[in-house]
């Protein structure tokens, strides 16, 4: 959402292939960098290139760049491999502050001024040290404009821009992760309220999306690597072997694997409990106050979303349908092309693809 160079002119038609621009997204996280480049065609956007470059443990932690030199090197490698010179980039959800407010005025410049005047009530940061942006959600019954916004500490924005600059990657726009993920996984024009759960390596991110706009988001400090460690401890195997066992067995009950399943579920239940607590708060708020629609379904994404049995486990806990996502939902129909990126692997690219889709002329923001 945080536009660096402002809005650009967007064609309402698909340009000829030889002058068609590429839409690119780069997702920097604790596990590394994922970069994608999309290409528009007569039938829509398709995936032109994708790559992943790993970061060592601790190089990027809790949304903070710890090892700047390694981060720059990995960004440089990913951009080169994906043939990217400019891109939209993600800002970490764990460092963001979502807010909603009602304001007066008819133009965006008036809305921004109104938000700035009481920014300290919306974001728990000193206003001079805060960067923010927002999206119009319509009007309330009093005729005020309702907006959803997000704020970041300026130092996070500046640090992100500086490492991209050092890697010689032009940043067209910065955006909070949940906005990008929602754009990738939820069909354009879908007004429903959805919970997206992104199960990464070291964290699990959840965001409640209404009308493709994030309304609540949080990061849980447990991810899929904890499941890998549980397998390692139980079987006494290497990490690579543990990942293979995790993929094959998941959390599906089977004769003779009761102890293994108990070891796995001790971690899964910790993630599920954290999700359930926030989920139930939203559902109760929607029911009692009537200010929000209740969540109707859950979409799983992230590198560990494909663990066997996970959708069924969460569905039994949350009592709404749970499915794994399709990151190509808003690209060209699969009748027109077949992605080279494997489905299971693609679940880790939701943020990067959503960032690239920001340049689509049909995007909502």
Automatic annotation (TrEMBL):
It comes from the Bacteria. InterPro entries: ATPase_NBD, FtsA/MreB, PilM. This is SHS2 domain-containing protein. It comes from Candidatus Kaiserbacteria bacterium RIFCSPHIGHO2_02_FULL_55_17. It holds the Pfam family PilM_2. CDD domains: ASKHA_NBD_PilM (cd24049). SUPFAM superfamilies: Actin-like ATPase domain.
């Amino acid at each position: 959402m945080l536009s660096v160079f402002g809005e650009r002119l967007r064609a309402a038609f698909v340009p000829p292939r030889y002058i068609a621009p590429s839409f690119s997204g780069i997702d920097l996280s604790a596990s590394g960098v994922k970069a994608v480049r999309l290409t528009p065609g007569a039938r829509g956007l398709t995936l032109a290139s994708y790559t992943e470059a790993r970061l060592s443990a601790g190089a990027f932690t809790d949304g903070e760049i710890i090892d700047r030199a390694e981060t720059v090197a990995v960004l440089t490698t990913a951009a080169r491999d994906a043939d990217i010179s400019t891109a939209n980039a993600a800002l970490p959800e764990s460092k963001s502050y979502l807010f909603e407010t009602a304001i007066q005025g008819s133009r965006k410049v008036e809305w921004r001024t109104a938000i700035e005047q009481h920014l300290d009530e919306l974001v728990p940061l000193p206003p001079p040290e805060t960067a923010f942006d927002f999206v119009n959600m319509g009007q309330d019954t009093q005729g005020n404009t309702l907006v959803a916004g997000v704020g970041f500490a300026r130092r996070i924005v500046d640090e992100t821009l500086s490492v991209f600059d050092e890697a010689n990657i032009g940043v067209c726009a910065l955006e909070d992760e949940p906005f990008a993920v929602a754009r990738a996984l939820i069909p354009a024009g879908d007004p429903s309220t959805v919970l997206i759960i992104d199960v990464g390596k070291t964290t699990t991110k959840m965001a409640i999306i209404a009308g493709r706009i994030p309304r609540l988001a949080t990061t849980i400090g447990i991810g899929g690597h904890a499941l890998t460690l549980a397998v390692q401890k139980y079987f006494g195997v290497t990490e690579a072997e543990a990942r293979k066992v995790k993929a094959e067995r998941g959390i599906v009950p089977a004769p003779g694997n009761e102890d293994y399943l108990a070891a796995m579920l001790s971690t899964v239940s910790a993630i599920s409990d954290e999700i359930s607590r926030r989920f139930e708060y939203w559902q109760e708020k929607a029911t009692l106050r009537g200010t929000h629609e209740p969540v109707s379904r859950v979409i799983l994404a992230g590198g560990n979303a494909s663990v066997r049995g996970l959708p069924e486990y969460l569905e039994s806990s949350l009592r709404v349908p749970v499915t794994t996502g399709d990151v190509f939902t808003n690209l060209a129909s699969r009748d027109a092309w077949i992605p080279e990126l494997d489905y299971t692997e693609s679940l880790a690219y939701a943020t990067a693809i959503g960032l690239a889709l920001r340049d689509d002329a049909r995007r909502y923001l």
